[in-house]
Specification:
single chain; alpha+beta; Rossmann fold; OB fold (Dihydrolipoamide Acetyltransferase, E2P); 10 helices
């Protein structure tokens, strides 16, 4: 397996700096996700690790071996990596077995050894009964597993995945998340995974690196960056959240948009603040501190996705699905907030939440 050490890597295309001082270590056997909006630099970082791009500055090590830096540049085929792309990239004229065996065939490994390793990886990826099928006889999820098996059969030290599930439908994406994670745990392999899908990142990662405009905004476990985001961008990108402008006064936060209603607060912030509330942390309750009117509700089966008008503010509330039968549009309600986040209002909220396209 491999530890990946990224030491002060930057990457610029002309005057456009797409990565700024990326300085991190990915541990042996970790499942790392590079998460962020389109154009943030995550795929560029993956391509630098793979050897498809050279950084402008900085060094890259696999364990103690320098693979990129100064005059050293190890080409992709010498890095001991496996890679799975967004497109399946399986050979249409080869059956499943031959597709998976291809990396070993070009290495001129013996037929017995090829058959042994291919059969093993086909078992791991649940493809053993499809060995004679051709890609046009497979579902999208099965084709993606073929691409994954082909990347694994060469027994790479490091597996790189570039948005491999984005072409699948919602149900297949969900099942493949767990399959990839189970394979990674079974093999103990180091994985670097690129996605813009925060649900994928939350479900699969040991650590997430959330990137915006080429800068790592925060890294940590899914729980850490979801519950204790470093800034407003992180809070907004990972999960659902509403922001409200407020001011700390006498042990509470007064929110003008809510008609001057307030939330109790004993934290360290003072003066003007940005209050961030996740809708699952709000409930409709008889004794809630906020009063409003139920403006809309959307039945989603397991949840009732509500909008409550509080003063001039529209507050999103994720209620249990059965509440849909108990509530009706236009009724007055009270809201209780279990937890909320408070950031300094330094005038940059709108800029931080502006996502690149």
């Amino acid at each position: 397996m491999a530890t990946v050490s990224i030491r002060h890597i930057t990457k610029a295309f002309g005057d456009n700096v797409v990565l700024q001082d990326f300085n991190e270590t990915f541990g042996d056997g970790e499942f790392i996700t590079l998460l962020g909006p389109s154009g943030c630099g995550k795929t560029t970082m993956l391509r630098i690790i793979a050897g498809f791009e050279r950084p402008t500055t900085g060094e890259l090590y696999f364990d103690d071996t320098l693979v990129t830096g100064g005059k050293t540049f190890l080409p992709p085929e010498q890095r001991g990596i496996g890679m799975v792309f967004q497109s399946y990239a399986v050979w249409p004229h080869m059956n499943v077995f031959d597709n998976v065996a291809y990396p070993l065939t070009i290495q001129k490994i013996s037929k017995d050894k090829i058959r042994e390793r291919v059969n093993r990886v086909l078992e791991i990826t649940h493809l053993a009964k499809y060995t004679e099928r051709f890609p046009n006889q497979l579902s999208g999820g099965q084709q993606q597993r073929v691409a994954l098996a082909r990347a694994l059969v060469a027994e790479p030290k490091l597996l790189l995945l570039d948005e491999p599930l984005s072409n699948l439908d919602a149900k297949l994406r969900e099942s493949m998340r767990f399959e990839i994670k189970e394979i990674q745990k079974k093999l103990g392999i180091t994985v670097v995974y690129v996605t813009h899908d925060q649900t994928e990142a939350m479900a699969m990662s040991d650590r997430i690196f959330l990137i915006n405009r080429g800068v790592v905004q925060q890294s940590g476990s899914p729980e850490e960056i979801y519950n204790t985001p470093a800034n407003q961008f992180v809070a907004d990108f990972l999960g659902k959240v509403d922001f409200f402008k407020g001011e700390v006064k006498d042990g509470k936060i007064v929110i003008p948009a809510m008609g001057g209603q307030s939330l109790p607060y004993d934290g360290p912030r003072t003066g003007k603040v940005d209050v961030a509330v996740r809708p699952e942390n709000i409930s409709i309750a008889d004794d809630g501190p906020l009063t409003g009117t139920l403006e809309a509700q959307y039945y989603l089966g397991d949840t009732d996705d509500c909008r409550v008008r509080v003063g001039d503010a529209l507050v999103r509330v994720i209620a249990p699905g059965w509440d849909y039968r108990l509530l009706h549009t236009g009724q007055p309600v009270r809201l209780a907030i279990r937890e909320f986040m408070v950031f300094e209002d330094d005038g940059t909220l709108e800029k931080m939440l502006e996502i690149q396209t």
